[in-house]
Design brief:
single chain; mainly alpha; 6 helices
């Protein structure tokens, strides 16, 4: 799947079956379900999960917590818009 296909799938009421958990978390976030996205990412580990976790806390407005997760991901706190970061994350994870 490519980023454009993922974006197009947001018109549906459920995510595609073949999404990995981190992309599924991003899908739910894009659909407005931050809580479910956060719940999914909390069960994951590794730098990619930490990056998604950081993005979610930045979106939430909890920059201190986001900073912690960006450090765990080995990423700097981004100056990109949330939409730009979402796209970057999704493209990297697909």
């Amino acid at each position: 799947m490519e980023l454009k296909e993922l974006r197009n799938s947001l018109a549906n009421s459920v995510p595609p079956d073949d999404l990995g958990s981190l992309v599924r978390a991003l899908w739910h976030d894009a659909k407005g379900n931050w809580s479910l996205a956060h719940e999914i990412v909390q069960d994951e580990s590794g730098p990619d999960a930490a990056w998604v976790h950081a993005y979610l806390h930045r979106k939430e407005g909890d920059l201190a917590n986001a900073g912690y997760w960006y450090r765990r991901a080995g990423k700097p706190l981004t100056q990109k818009t949330l939409e730009e970061e979402w796209d970057e994350l999704a493209a990297a994870l697909l």
